[in-house]
């Protein structure tokens, strides 16, 4: 199987319920953080019984976070063979553009990590 499951978790509650992200991490670091992205990737692995996962969490815009994090900030995590890799990117553009760039970046990085 190449693609077995996908999860869309916009709210903190969905991240906690579906991907087992800890409330403490959300409160301490915010939903758009390295810690939460890593927990999302690990939760997706466990929930989907998969070998590889990608997690993306960010502010597509037009507004950023309440903590001052600008729109276009996106955290990524990849969980592969028991290892979690993370990265942050800052994209410019409207929400649709940020989303497209984030997906492209996540997939390109996945290929690089697998090779």
TrEMBL record:
Residues 2-113 form the CinA C-terminal domain. One of its GO terms (molecular function) is isomerase activity. It comes from the Bacteria. The keyword Isomerase applies. InterPro entries: CinA-like_C, CinA_C. Gene3D superfamilies: CinA-like. It holds the Pfam family CinA. Keywords: Isomerase. The keyword Isomerase applies. This is 2-oxo-tetronate isomerase. The lineage of its organism: Bacteria, Pseudomonadati, Pseudomonadota, Gammaproteobacteria, Enterobacterales.
